[in-house]
Every structure is written in structure tokens, then in C-alpha cells.
């Protein structure tokens, strides 16, 4: 059915930002789609020796080698479930230490829905989680809490240096 009445949008807010929703275990998370380059089905990866268990491997994609992390394994020490809705999402990764935009792959469960909302609907949740700086603010809706992931904060420095050893502007270990 068509909505015949136009919806009013508060001045200065536009239509909001678009987010890719996904789950880690039963928890809901979101990525700003401006950080997403491409959403792919899960692929076979080349493992990386001596990397943390949550580093899933290397993807060859469009002529580039892209390191991939399993966000479920990083966050909850449990690898992502092998489901048809589990996706490999290639994102723009630009940590301050690298100074350039890199590509990083993320294995995400149930990464099949999007949400449009205003960024200011996500609010700080009051915890200083130094072990997981990538966990951003949260938004409450009818389905519960939705937490935003801060892509540029995903990798600790030592893992970033392992996965991106030749990144310009990166200081030697």
C-alpha cells in the first residue's frame, strides 16, 4: 500500500544515515554503509600463520589481498556461524596510525538488513571498554539495543602491523 501522506522530516536532518545491520551471537550491531565497499557471500580464505584466532585469513578480491577478521570471534571468542546469511563485508579501514585508507574484510552473521536513522540516535552507553574500543554508541528501538561498530578502531596496533605491514605512514615495530 502506498503512503499518501508525506512524512515530515525535522529541519536539518535529511533522511538520516543508512546502516548495515548484523548480529554477533544474538546481539544486534550496525555499520555505517559509507564504510562498506562491498557485501559478499562467505568465501574460502587463506589462513595467516601466527595471527590471533579471530583473524580469519586473507581474501583475494578484485586483484587485491584483503585481510579478513571474524567479528564474532573477536568480540565473543566464538567464530561466526556458517549460515547462508553470514557475509564477508569489505570495508574502508583508516586507522589514524596508518594515515591512508585500507581495505579490511569482516565476517558478519545475518548481515542482510539495513536501517536508516539519524546518527545522533546512537548514544554513549557509559562503559569505558578499553579492550573493545570498536564498540560504539547504542540506539534503542522496538527490537532492543543496536550498537554501532567503529571500523577504524577494530584492530589493536600489533595486529594492524601484522595485517598491513607496508601501510604508508606506519611506524616500524
From TrEMBL:
SUPFAM superfamilies in alphabetical order: CheW-like
Domain CheW-like, residue spans: 16-160
GO BP field: chemotaxis; signal transduction
A GO cellular component annotation in the UniProt record: cytosol
Superkingdom of the source species: Bacteria
PANTHER family xrefs: CHEMOTAXIS SENSOR HISTIDINE KINASE-RELATED (PTHR22617), PROTEIN PILI (PTHR22617:SF43)
UniProt xrefs under Pfam families: CheW
Name of this chain's protein: Putative chemotaxis signal transduction protein CheW domain protein
Amino acid at each position: 500500500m502506498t503512503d499518501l501522506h508525506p512524512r515530515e522530516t525535522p529541519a536539518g536532518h535529511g533522511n538520516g544515515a543508512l546502516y548495515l545491520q548484523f548480529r554477533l551471537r544474538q546481539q544486534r550491531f550496525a555499520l555505517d554503509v559509507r564504510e562498506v565497499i562491498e557485501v559478499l557471500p562467505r568465501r574460502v580464505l587463506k589462513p595467516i600463520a601466527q595471527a590471533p584466532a579471530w583473524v580469519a585469513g586473507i581474501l583475494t578480491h578484485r586483484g587485491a589481498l584483503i585481510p579478513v577478521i571474524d567479528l564474532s570471534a573477536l568480540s565473543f571468542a566464538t567464530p561466526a556461524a556458517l549460515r547462508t546469511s553470514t557475509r564477508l563485508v569489505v570495508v574502508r579501514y583508516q586507522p589514524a596510525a596508518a594515515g591512508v585508507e585500507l581495505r579490511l574484510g569482516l565476517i558478519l552473521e545475518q548481515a542482510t538488513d539495513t536501517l536508516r536513522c539519524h546518527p545522533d540516535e546512537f548514544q554513549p552507553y557509559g562503559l569505558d571498554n578499553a579492550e573493545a574500543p570498536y564498540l560504539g554508541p547504542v540506539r534503542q528501538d522496538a527490537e532492543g539495543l543496536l550498537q554501532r561498530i567503529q571500523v577504524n578502531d577494530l584492530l589493536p596496533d600489533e595486529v594492524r602491523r601484522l595485517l598491513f605491514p607496508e601501510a604508508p605512514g606506519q611506524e616500524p615495530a
